[in-house]
Amino acid sequence: MALTLVWLRDDLRIADNPALHAAAERGDVVVCYVLDEVSEGIRPLGGASRWWLHNSLSSLRSAFEDQGIPLVLRSGPAADVIPRLIEESGADAVFWNRRYVLAERNVDAALKGSLSDEGYQVHSFQANLLFEPWEVTTGSGSPYKVFTPFWRACRNRPAPREPLDGPTVLRGPNVDSEDLDEWRLLPDTFDWAGGLRQTWTPGELTAQALLDRFVTGTVDGYADARQLPDVEGTSRLSPHLRFGEISPFQVWHSARAASTSATASDLAIFTQELGWREFCWQLLYHQPRLATENYRPQFDAFPWQQPDSDELDAWQYGRTGFPLIDAGMRQLWHTGWMHNRVRMAVGSFLVKNMMVDWRVGEQWFWDTLVDADPANNAANWQWVAGSGADAAPYFRIFNPVTQSKKFDPDGGYLRRWIPELRSAHKVHEPWTDLPAGYPPPLLDLKVSRERALNAYQDLRQD
């Protein structure tokens, strides 16, 4: 009987897993996950992502045990671990789903070459993007730099494939596994993850339940509700997509099937959010250093300011004196997630009002977001800063007071995350009658806005 080693990465699911599906059709399987944070160029996960990964692997391990096989856990450089697992298991083939970060692609390409030379079957599959980044190009064959024509080109391609059913029965030998707890993915100095545990249940079953709930209810009215941070108007699928507990194919087709109940505009905007995810991954594929280098080289000359530690702490921990910024950053610290409307505001405040390099914010989000992935995190920070592809106009500076009055008019979101303001009469502008324990504004919005506009204008002229 043929035996296939299935190497899982950011695809921690059983349903709609092409590598697992093909391996199960072929014969017996050994399923493994390799914690590789040492291969050249691999970016170690942030703290919140490590917490999610631990719990996701724990859930997936139980799911595989229910089907009769173990989930084999190994740590170390994949170039060493995978050949060792092949030898131990007796596998004659290795299947995996494709990755798109350059360092990971290099690892995969080297392994594919060496294993193929030794006579093993090695196959990779499309599983985590609706459209391969190299397939959607302009008429001249170059990658898109603007989202709207990119998404139009995607929609003009054949529709994404239907999701694959997960195998109902799996067979395979027992192979030694490392102990998940010994990986120390969970907090070990002090327990900062209480809010994450209250907010999230990682795993494929939860992801599918969230998707079902969204397409049968929340998607109706999504176009408006998604803008309101005090309303449960979004899918909350982002961390589940980031770790591949659910696939974009499952999300796409479930949303399309909901068309009988949801309005066309709601569906179009929701699927467009999937399109933005695809666009970010295309940018990273063609610009591998998206998290560390300006997409637009002219921004290398931008006069970023070096904040002192107190100013940066004020932003990171929600003590700026601007309620929308502080509510968002406190939500992030407690839950590992932040509403997208608020993400844009806190990002704009850091890079435009405080004039702090966007990479400082990108790194903080990388460490604190449960849904931080290499493409979306970097591309969205560059979008806010104006240094990225299809970026926000340089003159677009989110006013946190205007934003909270418009999208949280009753102040419910602000009061939920800032206890000091729960009795405030002017919750959007508390400095007019400053409540005890709440800080005064960190800066002058008008002055800081003018400073940013002048810096951006000077950059444009140069």
Automatic annotation (TrEMBL):
The lineage of its organism: Bacteria, Bacillati, Actinomycetota, Actinomycetes, Micrococcales. The keyword Flavoprotein applies. Coiled coil: none annotated. Residues 2-130 form the Photolyase/cryptochrome alpha/beta domain. It comes from Arthrobacter vasquezii. This is Deoxyribodipyrimidine photo-lyase. Keywords: Chromophore, FAD, Flavoprotein. PROSITE patterns: DNA_PHOTOLYASES_1_1 (PS00394), PHR_CRY_ALPHA_BETA (PS51645). Its cofactor is FAD. SUPFAM superfamilies: Cryptochrome/photolyase FAD-binding domain (SSF48173), Cryptochrome/photolyase, N-terminal domain (SSF52425). InterPro entries: Crypto/Photolyase_FAD-like_sf, Crypto/Photolyase_N_sf, Cryptochr/Photolyase_FAD-bd, Cryptochrome/DNA_photolyase_1, DNA_photolyase_1_CS_C, DNA_photolyase_N, Rossmann-like_a/b/a_fold. Belongs to the DNA photolyase family. It comes from the Bacteria.
